[in-house]
């Protein structure tokens, strides 16, 4: 049985080809989805899961790395269609996912709008509308930094803030796999900080890359870019040097 399955989901957005890589984790009892795409991505997930010979009904849990719209957009729809799914999130992220606090990405977009050149404002207005359209979803369980979930040989919660304050990555020591979320991305075969222009705290983001270096990682999976092919430790060190030089 494969314990770690990559759900590469290709789609068109703004006339550009994009791919996101949620992850499916399985053991004898649990099927766990990590992150769940943009709003209206329910059909994409059904197709991606079926490619692995499974059905969405098999999913028992969803772990959310943070509340950006491309990570929680389909969460409410998945939970509504499959109420048996337990939604798990970092404790700091819960009120944003539930809609009790305004999305930090929306706060950022609204606060920078007035300073944009006029030609950029139509795109920003569309982005703000899109952020406001994300449907809140329930959170059934919160987790803390350093906590280990008892599935798939253990899943350690690694707090990797920067991109957002409550961002987490997941480490599976049994397979030395790090699911990075947006702590790092792969661009043209190299690791980078995810969207530096939108990262809420770059110093924290670099510290989070340093935190990843504390783990013995054989397999690094990024939400944007998929699985990294190369020497993970050397690539992480090079990324830290790039942003601290």
UniProtKB/TrEMBL annotation:
It comes from the Bacteria. Gene3D superfamilies: Ribonuclease Z/Hydroxyacylglutathione hydrolase-like. Pfam families: Lactamase_B. The keyword Hydrolase applies. Keywords: Hydrolase. Signal peptide: none annotated. Coiled coil: none annotated. It catalyses: 3',5'-cyclic CMP + H2O = CMP + H(+); 3',5'-cyclic UMP + H2O = UMP + H(+). Residues 19-224 form the Metallo-beta-lactamase domain. InterPro entries: Metallo-B-lactamas, NDM-1-like, RibonucZ/Hydroxyglut_hydro. GO terms for molecular function: hydrolase activity. PANTHER family: METALLO-BETA-LACTAMASE DOMAIN-CONTAINING, METALLO-BETA-LACTAMASE SUPERFAMILY PROTEIN. Counteracts the endogenous Pycsar antiviral defense system. Phosphodiesterase that enables metal-dependent hydrolysis of host cyclic nucleotide Pycsar defense signals such as cCMP and cUMP. This is MBL fold metallo-hydrolase. It comes from Paenibacillus flagellatus.
